[in-house]
Structures are given as C-alpha cells and as structure tokens.
Amino acid sequence: MPYQPDPSRPLILTPAGPAPAPAYRAPAAPRPRRPLPRNPYLRLFALPGTRAFTAGNLLARLPSGMFGVSTILLISGAYDSYALAGAVSAAGLAAGAVTAPWIARLVDRHGQARVAVPATVWAVLGQLVLLLCAHGRAPVWTLFAAAVLGATAPNVGGMARARWAHLLKGDPGALHTANSFEQAADELGFMLGPVLAAFLCSALFPEAGALVGSAFFLAGVLLFAAQRTTEPPAAPPASGGSPLRSPGMPGLLAVFLATGAVFGSMEVVTLAYVDGPAAGPVLALQAAGSCAAGLVYGRARRAAPLAACLAAMTLLMTLPLLAARTGSLLALAGALLLAGAATAPTMVTGMGLIQRLTPPGRLNEGMTLAVTALLAGIATGSATGGHLADHAPTPLYGYLTPPLAAALALLLCATTGRSRRAHAPISS
To answer: 31-49 pLDDT, tens per residue?
Structure first.
C-alpha cells in the first residue's frame, strides 16, 4: 500500500526521504517535593545515608566511656593495685595522644574506610592482649606494652563531624545543629559507658566490660566505614598545610587544654568526695546536663561566642563547690546537673572554630588535635584534683580546681584575638 501522509503531522526530510515529524509529547509534570521537617534534627537525618553512618557512629562511641573503667576494674582486681591500673590507663592515653593526629592525617589523605578499619582492628587486638595479660597475671611490663601498642583507635567523633562538614558545606546553620548532635553523642557515651562497664564487670566477670566494649567498637566502626556515599573524598598529600600553622589554632588548642582540666578535675574530685556506689550515678548527671544542653543549643539560630560560653562555664562550675559545703548529696547532684549545661555549648562552639581554622583537606587532623589537647587537659586536671583530694584537709577543696581551670580557659580565649575573630554567626 503506498504511503499516505498524515495531514495533521508535518513532514521532515530524512536520508530516506520525507517522513512525518515525531508526535509531540507534553513533558511529564514534576513530582511535588516533600517539604523538609521543621525540626532541625529531623532535617539532618532526612539526608540520604546519614542515619546509617550515625548508627555506626553511636555504637562505636559508646566504648569510649567503657574502656577506662573496664581497664581499671580489671587490673586493680587482678593485681590488687589501683596505682598500677591508673598508670597503665595513663600510658595508653599518652600513647594515643601521640598516635591520634598521625592516624587522623592518614584518614584525611587516604579516606576514612581505608585507614579506620585496620586501625580499629589493631586497637581491638591490643585490648584483647591486655585483657589476656591481666587475666593471666603476666609481668607488669606486658600490661604497659599492650596498652601502648594498641593505642591506634581512630577518632570516630572527628570522622563523623568531618562527614557532616562535607555534607552540609555552605549551610552553617545545619552544621551547627550537626555539631551539637555530635557533642550530645559524646556525652551520651560518657554517661552510659561507665555504668554499663561497671555492671558487666561486677555482674558477669572482670573481663566482660573490655570484651563487650571491644565488640561494640569494632562493629560500630565497620558499620560506619561501610557507608561510602557520605564519606568525604580523600585529600591529596599537598592539600593544605598543617593545622598547627593556622593563625589562631595554637591559642585555641590552649583553650581546649584548660577546658579539659575542668572535666578531669571534676570527675576525680567528685569520686573522692562521694566515695561510694552513688558516685557514678551522681557524676553521670553532669554528662546528662551537657547532653540536654547540647540538643537545645543545636536548635539555636545563633551560636554564642566562645568567650561567653566559657564565662558561663566558670560561673556554673562554682555550683558544685557551694553544694558540697552543704554536705547534701542531693544538692551536689543538682549542682552537677546544672554545671554540665555549660559543657556542650562550649565544646560545640570550640569545635566550630576548629573547623573554620583548619585548612581544607585536613579536617580530621585538626579536630583530632583538639581532642588530643582536651585529653591532655583531662589528665592534668585528674592529677591536680587527685592531689588536692588526697592532701587537702578535706576533699571539698578539690572543687576549687574546676572553676579555676574554667577561668584560665576564659583568660586564654580573651587574650587570643584570632580565636574570637574566627567566630561567626550561623544562619538558619
């Protein structure tokens, strides 16, 4: 049958001759976009992949509050020496302060999954070797060797903050909320971890706390590292300079050092003052106050200056001293709850400054340096608070250390102009 052109469709020229033009199809109507939740935290977790890496992040962060208590209970029970237990724990902490920035630099250069997983496996093996040495009452030097050689645990909190910074680039308001959530996660780990470790070691067997903590840590890091879609890209070796060379960074790290002394001294002094099974739950109230304050602070439309946060911390850290003078355990518990409310805003604001001052491609290293300074301050505060608790006429005098350390941090912040100028308001 000969070709009959359709008068309703125009002809176009093709190599084979004239042919009807293709029929017009109207474009499909765009699908309506679902409105974002009004709650800033729900908006964070509406992003693809954030729930999965946060689940691994929380699981891996819980052992941060378990390992210290488990090590002290295990070694003190096996060797009948709290001094040895504290020395082994301090040796592992000191080794971690040396290795953590180096591991963070490898994470920035080669990617989180490629570095964090083998570093975690090595750290867990070190923890298991320490457990076996303590269980078999091996020579004391083996305890120190295991603690030092196994100090390769990656900074999971820093890696999580780096993921948020990558995902929320250009949205400082959402990044402020994400940093607040991460600080609340830190406090949750330090609030639940010691309680869980003490329960496992007492209810089951002395090695239970370390075993469960190791399993949680390994499983959490594996789940976290498996979420490759949210992982920041690896930076080339020449990307940015050392964070220590950034203007304002050394002064800000000094502020973190003094702030860590607040936390370390408060913990030791409270344990010495309460001196009983109620010490753990009472001390956990400080972390609970910080966790709640962090979640509230994450909904704020403006971030407070770091100096204002430190001034509030200095004021609130005097409350435990006043409560301890009354001799009431209930008053001390309430004072610690209120004192903890200044912790999270201070840490969130400080970490925000670290992120702004760190060169691109070195974010994990910059935040790990901040954590290292904080841990060094915790160790210094613990030693100072412990000395006062042992040698002062009454443990009450130990409560002078936290507000004095907070005042020192405020003074360092006030004299470090670059740290204050690095502050910038967030946008909603």
So the answer is: 555 555 677 777 778 888 8
Q: What is the 3-state secondary structure (H, E, C) of the chain?
A: CCCCCCCCCCEEEECCEEEECCCCCCCCCCCCCCCCCCCHHHHHCCCCCHHHHHHHHHHHHHHHHCHHHHHHHHHHHHHCCHHHHHHHHHHHHHHHHHHHHHHHHHHHHHCHHHHHHHHHHHHHHHHHHHHHHHHCCCCHHHHHHHHHHCCCCCCHHHHHHHHHHHHCCCCHHHHHHHHHHHHHHHHHHHHHHHHHHHHHHHHCCCCHHHHHHHHHHHHHHHHHHCCHHHCCCCCCCCCCCCHHHCCCHHHHHHHHHHHHHHHHHHHHHHHHHHCCCCHHHHHHHHHHHHHHHHHHHCCCCCCCCHHHHHHHHHHHCCHHHHHHHHCCHHHHHHHHHHHHHHHHHHHHHHHHHHHHHCCCCCHHHHHHHHHHHHHHHHHHHHHHHHHHHHHCCCHHHHHHHHHHHHHHHHHHHHCCHHHHHCCCCCCC
Lowest mean pLDDT among 60-74, 121-135, 177-191, 410-424: 410-424
Tell whether domain 242-428 is in CATH 1.20.1250.20: yes
CA 208/CA 201 separation, integer angstroms: 5
Domain ranges for the chain, please list them: 48-166+188-234, 242-428
CA nearest 333: which of 343, 324, 341, 345? 324
Of 35-49, 50-64, 151-165, 279-293, the range with the lowest mean pLDDT is 35-49
Distance from the Cα of residue 236 to its chain's centroid: 25
Q: Which residues pair with 12 in a beta bridge?
A: 19
Q: Which CATH number fits domain 48-166+188-234: 3.30.420, 1.10.3470, 1.20.1250, 2.40.128?
A: 1.20.1250
User: Bridge partners of 19?
Assistant: 12
Residue 386 has pLDDT above 80, yes or no: no
Question: What angle, 0 to 180 degrees and rounded to 10, lies between the N-to-C axes of helices 82-110 and 67-79?
Answer: 150
Q: How many Å apart are CA 325 and CA 372, to the nearest integer?
A: 34
Note whether 144 and 234 are within 8 A (CB): no
